[in-house]
Write a structure and sequence with these properties.
The complex is a heterodimer of chains A (855) and B (415). Chain A has 855 residues and is α+β, with helices and mostly antiparallel strands. Chain A has 31 helices and twelve strands. Chain B is of the alpha+beta class and 415 residues long. Chain B has helices spanning 2-19, 33-36, 58-66, 69-74, 91-101, 134-138, 141-167, 170-181, 192-199, 207-211, 215-222, 227-238, 245-262, 265-282, 287-299, and strands at residues 28-29, 45-50, 79-84, 117-121, 127-132, 303-304, 320-324, 333-343, 348-357, 360-371, 379-384, 391-397, 407-414. In chain B, the strands form three sheets. In chain B, strands 1-3-2-4-5 form a five-stranded mixed β-sheet, with helices on both faces. The chains are: A alpha+beta (855), B alpha+beta (415).
Amino acid sequence: MRIASLLLSLSTVLISGTPQVLRAQEEVPNAAVENVATEEVTPEGTEEENADTAPNDKEKPLNLTPTLKADASKVNWKSPRAVQRSAADAIIKQMKGKFEPARMRKVLSNPRQRLNVTRYLLAEFDNRVTTDKMEETKQRDQNLLQEATSALERAKAQMKGLKGEAKTKQLASIKQAERDVEYAKRQLEIPWKLAEYADTKGGKQMLSRITGDLEWMENICLSGECHAPARIFGFIEEISKEHPDAFKNKMVRDIITATAIEYVRHDWYLGKAAARADYFIRNWKANRLNVIFDTLPFWQRRVVCGAKSTFYQGNDSAAEVASMEWALDNVHLPNERYTGCCWRCGYKLWNLYGESIHGSGYREPFEENYWNNHHQFTLEVGGVCGGLSHFGAYAAVANGIPAQTMGEPGHCAYTVLVNGEWVTAYSVFWQHSLHAPRPVDNMYRIFTALAMSNELYAVENKEDTYSSHAYRALALYAASTKRHKAAEECFQWAMSAQPLNFPIWREYTNYLRETKPDDLKRWIAVQDNLCYHMASRYPEIAGIFLRTYVYPDLLKAKPTRQQLLACYHVFWDSIRDRGPERWDVEGMADMQIAMLGGSAKVPEGENPPPPDKTNLLSVYSILMSNISSKAWYTPIVTAWANAHADACGGSVAKDMLAVSDIFSSTGLNSMEGKDRTVINRQMILSAEKAQDIASFQRVGKRAAEDVTAPEMPDFEGFEGELLSEGGLIYTSTTCGHDDPNEHWGLLQKSGGRFHTDKEENPWVTVMLPRDCFVSGVVVVTTSGNMHRMKDMEILVSDTGNDNSWRTVGNVNGDAQRVNRIEIQETKARYIRVRRKGGPEYFHLNGIYVYGRKAA
Amino acid sequence: MKARIFLLLSILGTLGILMGSPHAQAAQVVANYAEAAPKAGKDGYIVFVHSGGWDKFSVELCNKLIKSPAIASAAGDAIMFAAPFYQNANEKQSSEQNTAWGELMLPHGHSDENYPCLLMYDKENRLYARVQGPLVLRGTEEDIAAVVKTRLDALRKQQEIMARAEAAHGVEQAKLIGEACAIPGIEWPTDALKRVKAADSADASGMVRRLSFNPWAYAEETRTMPLSQGLAEMERRLADNAYTNEQKQVFCSIAIGLLHRQGTYDDWCTKIRSYAARMKELAPETPLGRSADIVVSRWGGAMSYFSGWYSYSIPPDERPVEIMGKLPFQNPGNYQVAFIYDGGRHSLKIKSVELRDGDRKISVDAHEGIAGRESKDHIYTVQLKGKPKNLKLFVTLRNGAEERDTRGRIYIYNK
C-alpha cells in the first residue's frame, strides 16, 4: 500500500512537471563562464544531430565523429568544474524543461549529449580525489622509487666477477631493475588531478584524444568505479608508449584502459600494470586467448585485466606474468573446465619435507625455483584451498576468462564466468566474499554483485543505464549548486531509470545524509524504493545496502516502532525469490531486531547476548507472514528462530511455535494440524531441496528428538574420518511412508530412515559438507523388506548435476544388513546409493561415508 | 644381363620390404573412432584433440600435426583421428563430439589434459600417454614426433612385459607388473596395484609397497616421529630397493625435515647436507632434486652467496660458517664482502671473514661488525692471492643460539 502511494505521488509530480527546476548556466548567479565561449559551437550541435527523432543506432554508431573530436581539443580540463557546468548545461538545454524518461532518451540519442554525460562524470570523479589521498600516495611512490633504485644498485653490484649463465641471468635482473626504476619515476610524476594533468607534456593530447572518443569515455566512466581519472589517463599514456597501436586498435586500447582503471583503483604499481597489459596484448595478438575474451563487455574485461596483483614486490601471486604465461601454456581449457582444474594440484597441507603450509618451511626449499610462478609451484609442490583456488581462478584469467578468488569462512574458493553466468568453484559454504570488490567499492564484495552487474551492463539494458547516468549527472549538478528540489527529483529519476545502478543509491543516501539527515520520511522512502526496485530479485544486495547505508541513518531520524516494523514488512514482502545465491537472511533479521532495540549494530562475538524477546517475536512474525510460503526461506527462518529460541529460553520457544502454528496452517498446503513435527517435515524437505546443509542439520537434529531411532547393528567403518555426519540427504522421491523427521538420523550412527516411492532406480544422495576424498561407504539397510534393497550401486559426483555421476562401487544381488563398499579413493561432494531396476520402493537406515577432507 | 640384374634387384627390394621393420606400415588417419576401431592394432589410437573453435589456433594446429609425415612415421601402426573438445557444447556439438570420440571416455573434470593435445590410447581404449603443453604449442613436428615415438615405444615395452606377467604367477608376476609400471612417460597398466596385491599379498616382491606408496600421506604421517626413530626408519626405507629413486628422494626429504625441526646446528651442517646430496643424486631434475641446493643454503647451517643468511645459518657458538655457492672471486686483488640486513629481531654480529684455500687461510679481516637496522663496519676486505684450487669463504659470528632471528644478503665485489 505504501509503495503504491509513493509511486503515485512521484508520478504525479513528474507528469505535472516541475517547471524549469533545472536551468542552463546563464540563470545561475556567479557561475564561471570561462568555458562557455570555448564550447559555444558545441552545446547545441548541428541541426542534424539534434533532430527530435532518435537515430537508428545501426546507421549511426555512437562514437567518435569529427565534430566531437574537434570539440575535445577545445575543452579546457584545467578547470574541470567548468567542464562539468558546461556539460550539464548542454544536457539541460536539450531537455527543454521536460525531464521525463522519454525526453531523456531522445536527448541521449545524440552522441554529443552522451559525451557530455561522461565528461560530467569524469570531472565528478576527479573532484573526489582528496588531498590526503594524494599526499599518502606521493609518499608511497617516493618510497617505491627509492626501493627500486636500491634494488638496481644491488643488482649492479652483484655483476662483478660473474661469467657465462650467471652473468646472463644477472644482466636480465639488472634490465628488470632498470625498468622498475623507470616506471617508479614515471609513476611518481603522474598527477592525481585533471587540472594538473592537462598541464603536462602528454596530458593535453591524451585528454583531447580520450575525452573526444565517446566509446572510450563510456568505458572509463560507465563500466564501474572510476577513481582518479587523471591518474588513469597517465597510466594509459605511459603504457601506450610501448603499444602505440593503442590509438588505432580498439582491443589494444581496451586492454590498456581496463588495466589502467583497475591498477589505479587499487593503487597498484605502474610497472606491473604495463607488464599485465603487455601480457594480454601480446597473447591476444598471437591468438592464444579463449575467444570469450574478444566479446567480453568492458566491465568484465576490467575483471580479467585487473586481476589481483601485488603492489611492487611479491613472489607468490598467481597473477604475475610468469605464472600466467605458464598457465596459458599448460592450463588451456574449455571455459567450464576451469571450475575443476584446481584439483589437478591436489590438496597438500604438508609438503614432502613434512612442513606445514602455515609455516615458512613449506615454501623455503622450493621458492627460488618457482619465483613468481604460483601455478607451477602449486602443481608440483602443493597448496591448500588458497593455493588451489588461485590456481584455478588465475588459470582462467590467464586465458582471458573472467574469474576471481573469494573468501568463505575459513576457506578460499573462487568463481569463474561460465556461459555468461558466475559459477562458484571449490566452494564449501554459501557465504562468499570476493577478494577484490567487483565492480563496486566498499561493501560490495558480495558474490551476487557479479550477477547483478551482468544485468546492469547487459546490452539490452544500455539505454536505461545510460539514462540513469544522465539523471545522475544532473542530480549531482543540482546538488552541487544547491538546487535541492531538482536534485531530489533527478535522483529519483536516476534510481528508477535503472534501479541496479547502485552507485547512484549510494550517492543519493550520501546526499540525504548531508542535506536532510533528520528527514525520516525520505529515509523511509529510500528504504521502500530500494525494496521495491531491488529486493525482489537481489535481496542480498538490497539487504546489505540497507544495513550499511540506510538503517543507521533511518534510526538516527527516530522512527517509531510501528514505522520500523512497516519498513521491515516492506522489505520481506518485496522478496520474490532467494536471488542468485543463498544469502545472510539471518543477519538481516538480526539487524532488524537490533534496530528495534535502538542500535544499528548486531551484537558480535562468540557468545553474543540473546535478543530481546519482544523484538525477536515481532521480527519473526513479520518474517513468517511474508515468506512462510516461500519454500526456499522457510527452513532458514525456522532454523534461525529455533537458535534464538534456544538462547532466549523460557516461554519464547512456545511463543514462536504459536506463531509458526498460525502460519503453518495458512501458508503450507501439505500440512494439517498444528503439530511441530508437521512443520519440521516441510522444513526438512525444503532444506533438502535447497541443499541447505545448515538448515537441514539444525531442523533435522531437533526433529529427530520426536521420532524413534531404528535398532542399528554394530558395524566397522573405514579408515579416515566419517565425512557424512554433518551433511545432508535427499532422495529421488518421497511418499506417504516417508517421514523427513527421520532423515537426519540416517547420517548418524544412531540411525534414521528414508522411504522413496515405488519407481525405477530409486536413490538417496548424501551431500557432504565439503569436497572430500572418499574411500569407503557403509550402507545399513532396514531390517525388513530386504528384497527391496538389492543390486545397489554407489555413485559419486562433484556437483550433483545430472551428467556428472560416476559409478565407484556395487552391492550385487541381495544386500546384507551392513554393506561395506571400499572405493578407490576419489574426490567427491555427493555420494549416491541407487537401487538398480524396479519399479520398487527403496529405504535404508544409515549411510556413512569415510575418507578425508579435501578442503 | 641387365634384365637379370634388374630382376635380382627387384627380388631383393621386395624381400627387403617384406623383411623390414614389423612396424613398417605408417599410421593411418581416419575421421573418427568408429572408423578407427576396426583398424586398431596393438599401437592403438592417437587422438589429436582441438578446441573446435573456443580458441583461434588449435584446430589449425591439430590439422597440421595430423598431416605431419614425421608424426605419422613415429606413430607406428596407430590409427589417428582429430576430435573436438567443445566449450559449453550445445546439442549439435555434443553429438558431433560424441561421434568423434566414440567409445573413448571424454576427459573428466579434474583430469590433466591441456589443449590442444595428442592423447594416446591403447587398443583397449586405455589412455596411456598425453603429449601437450609447450611442446605441442611451440615444438617442431620432429620434436613432437620424437616424443610420440618414445611414448609408443614405452607402450610396446609395457605390453611385452605385461604379456610375460600374464604368463607368470605370484612374486614373479608381481615383479613384472611393477616393472611395467616403472616405464617412464606412460600410465600404469589397468588395475596394476590390485593385480600385484592379488599375485603377491605378502609383498615379497616389494611391488605392493612401491605401487601403493603415497609420498604426501607418508610425509604427513612421519612428520612428528622422534628424530632418531625417524632417521632410522628413513634409512631402512632407503636401503629397500623396492622403492624407486623418486620415492627414495622422499625418504631423504622427510629426514631433512625431521632434522630441520628437531636437530641441532651440527645436525644441520652434517646430516642435512648429506641427505640433500643423496636426494639430489637420486633424481636431480625432480622438484625435490632441484630443491636440494636450496635446502642446504636455507637449512644446512650455511650461508649462501645466492640467498644470503637465515636464522638456520647462525651457529650456536663462534665456529666459522661457510658461505656456499659459486663465489665471484676471479683475479687476484682486494675484494669486499658486504653483509646487508633484510629483517628479523636480531642483527648479524660479525667477528671476522676468512678466505681459505682448502684448510689454509689466505686472507683474514678480523673486526667486529654489525649488519642490522643500524649497520656498522659490516663490510669486510679480503685479498685474493695466487690461484687457489679450493677457494672457500668463511664468516665467524658472535650471535650465538639466542640471537638467531635474522636474515639478509651477502655481496662480494672487487674493491
